[in-house]
Write a structure and sequence with these properties.
Blueprint (H helix, E strand, L loop, with lengths): L3 H12 L11 E7 L4 E5 L12 H11 L5 E8 L9 H9 L4 E5 L5 E5 H4 L12
Parallel strand pairs: 3-4
Antiparallel strand pairs: 1-2, 1-3, 4-5
This protein binds tetrahydrodeoxyuridine.
The site of tetrahydrodeoxyuridine has 15 residues, from helix 2.
Length: 131
């Protein structure tokens, strides 16, 4: 099983593939599944800005598409000097799939570990369907 600093390393490797013709900000993510498999993701921008997909969601959607449902942590890095934090939409997606830990890192290998609950308190998670 890989450790958090190795997960940051995977996110940094992924960042190379970011598609960012509009913002120029490359973001990389690496999602660790409970079985040890890692799914990388990058931000994929679009000329219609709203169609842009963040790196975190790319990684999560890749893993979900491959049948994964149990996760340990997600690491995220960018080109910025300061650590990047997931946007609100990505936090909601992390809550949906109960990804418990978010590791934000930088190029020097520094990282901080957060509980997802801390980043999205009182998340909207489940509801009773009205029949
Ligand atoms: N972005 C991410 O990929 N993840 C984040 O956590 C925040 C922002 C992307 C979206 C867009 O491509 C670029 O960064 C600038 O907002």
């Amino acid at each position: 099983m890989i450790n958090y600093s190795q997960l940051i390393e995977k996110a940094l490797e992924a960042r190379e593939h970011a598609y960012v013709p509009y913002s120029g900000l490359r973001v990389g993510a690496a999602l660790l599944c409970s079985d040890g498999e890692v799914f990388a993701g990058v931000n994929v921008e679009n000329v219609s800005f709203g169609a842009t997909n963040c790196a975190e969601r790319t990684a999560v959607f890749k893993a979900i598409s491959e049948g994964k449902r149990e996760f340990s942590a997600i690491a995220v890095v960018s080109d910025m000097d300061e650590m990047i934090y997931p946007c609100g939409i990505c936090r909601q997606v992390l809550a949906e799939f109960k990804i418990p830990v978010v590791i934000v890192g930088d190029e020097k290998g520094n990282y901080r570990v957060h509980r997802t609950e801390e980043l999205i308190p009182c998340a909207f998670t489940e509801f009773e369907t009205r029949k």
